[in-house]
Write a structure and sequence with these properties.
Radius of gyration: 20 Å
Largest sheet: none
Structural class: mainly alpha
Number of strands: 0
Shape: globular
Order of helices and strands: HHHHHHHHH
Length: about 260
Amino acid sequence: MSEPLLGPVVALAVVLGLVVGSFLNVVVWRVPRGESVVHPPSACPACAAAVRPRDNVPVLSWLALRGRCRDCSAPISRRYPLVELATGALFGVMALRFGADPVLPAYLYVAAVGLALALIDIDCKRLPDVLTLPSTVVVAALLVLAAALGSDSGELVRALLGSAALFALYFALCFAYPAGMGFGDVKLAPVLGAYLGWLGYGTLAVGAFLGFLYGGLVGILAMAIGKAGRKSKLPFGPFMLLGVLTAVLAGDQLVDLYTSATLG
């Protein structure tokens, strides 16, 4: 994509990400509690006062209020603006990666739902079906649409094979050692496999491998500093998603680096 066109696409993606990030804060709080994400409107958890529209502008409202409720001055967690900023950043890097390619909405979706799932998994150590199962349908629809619109960034059949391959891998691991992996990870695997497979089999291998590598390294570090034991369970979803993010952004380069180091 030409540089003059790429700039507006990235800027629009960042702004959209900030807005979506505000909604993700609602998702992360309400979905684990079985609450609706659309009703009732957002309110202060301390005094129940409804959040005014002018106090719901991503990041800026939190800064203007100095991190406190307008009505009762109860502190508002820094996590809210951080999630908004993180979503904006993720949308921005996805736009840099894909430009105006028709597949961009698919990768913006996985950035958003992936961040929500990672945070919920960290908080609750589970990946809710209400997010993972519908994502399978949404991802399929977005990738089919991208292929129909002539995307040249990937291949639909390869995405299907990647989805099946990653699901089979995680299902086998869960079956062989159910204490080490939750079935929520298995349900998320086909979604992530489709995104990786779309970009190439090398990217698929890198994304799958890095999830386990990140999880293993963090587990070793946690034991080394006394934060976990050999039988401690760490939420694996965030590592899966971080592996996918790395592979999407730098999978080709990592494959080239590996082949150069091993094959010369």
